[in-house]
Automatic annotation (TrEMBL):
Domain of life from the UniProt record: Bacteria
Signal peptide feature range: 1-23
Protein's recorded name: Oxidative stress defense protein
Organism, scientific name: Photobacterium aphoticum
Keyword annotations from UniProtKB, A to Z: Signal
Keyword Metal-binding: no
Amino acid sequence: MKKHLVAVMLGLGLLGTSGMASADISVPHLETTGSGEITVQPDMAVFSVAVEEVKPTAQAAKQAADQAVTAFVERLLAQGLERSQIQSANISLQPQYTYPKNNAPQLKGYRASRTITVTVNELDNLNMYLDNALGDGINRINAIELKVRDEKAFQEQARQAAIQDAISKAESLAKGFGEKLDGVWQISYQSNQPRPIMMRMAMDSPNEAAMTYQDAQIIIRDQVAVTFKLED
């Protein structure tokens, strides 16, 4: 009876960290939450750039935006990227007005914008593509997301580290209370996603960002909550 009370009290004490319902477990037990973390260097990236053109007519604005996108896409293809790595959004066309004081709004032209998203499998080429965008009429870099190609393998490493952490904690707790583990009773797991590196920068500073994304790191984390049985 004494061991049963000790085990239940220990399980309740750890309930807040694991989120498991101790009241539903009828055997002596303890609960632990294991965490694992893997730090990796990115080897690929996804970046988004855009062109915005304001012209007196809708047709002129559209043509200017389309020309910039076409030039940039053709350059990327010539440099060896596959068409599947390049996604260009439909054009957005909006009238632009001025608002003189005490007068009706006046149409001053049209703003056309298009966005291009590019997947880069060779991180060493990222800065070259960004420089090319400037030369082809692209006038905004929205974001750069650094990623790792073999994400599943690193996620598995983080998961196994979390499992070992849960076991180590359980063994330490049981030993400290003079108890022994008797297998796993319940596992609670929710997949964790890696934390991507997002970068935003002005169009006049791609070279300053080059060293930043070359030296960046991605942290991949995982966590598992486990209920262990205790020997009677």
